[in-house]
Design a protein that fits this description.
The chain is an all-alpha fold. It is 67% helix and 2% strand. A hairpin with a 2-residue loop joins strand 1 and strand 2 (87-88).
Length: 166
């Protein structure tokens, strides 16, 4: 049994589902990426140290993610009390890599900065669609909004970004 190869197979099979699960429970993409990375690291350490077989790996990974999310919100609540001149200290984000070449004149940093200036729902729409590959129906379910609203908001955002980066 090659544990490294088994881990890669499980990673490929579960990454999208786990990423989507975590992303829609946190506010920032970078936090979601960190949590997903920690989940897989914990799982990898577990399979290296144990000879136990996990029957439903995806459920096990979701359980680890839920524990990480619980710790994340506990830590976030205590961090919120630390303020700098009335503002919570901002954390640096990694640039978003858009799959479409719609805005080829702008840098990814500029695009990402513009997306992060959008309201929270619009951020979820753009990151969910472009970063996590969710379709409009999935976004509609996750955000509890009509699919037509998701489509129109996404179109409006893309048009605003096009105009900004002409």
């Amino acid at each position: 049994m090659n544990k490294h190869r088994d881990f890669e197979t499980i990673y490929r099979a579960t990454f999208n589902t786990l990423s989507k699960h975590v992303y829609f429970k946190v506010a920032k993409l970078s936090d979601a990426e960190d949590i997903v990375q920690e989940v897989y690291l914990d799982y990898y350490r577990y399979i290296q140290a144990q000879d136990k077989v996990i029957e439903n790996v995806q459920a096990y990974l979701i359980q680890i993610a839920n524990n990480k999310l619980s710790h994340y919100y506990k830590d976030k609540a205590s961090f919120a009390s630390i303020e700098d001149d009335g503002q919570i200290v901002d954390q640096t984000e990694d640039p978003l890599q858009l799959e479409h070449n719609v805005l080829d004149k702008a840098t990814l940093d500029q695009i990402y900065a513009e997306i992060m200036n959008l309201d929270e729902v619009d951020q979820h729409i753009m990151l969910g669609y472009y970063r996590f590959g969710l379709n409009y129906r999935e976004l509609s379910e996750k955000l509890e909004m009509p699919e037509s609203t998701i489509k129109s908001r996404a179109s409006k955002i893309i048009e605003q970004l096009r105009e900004k980066f002409k």
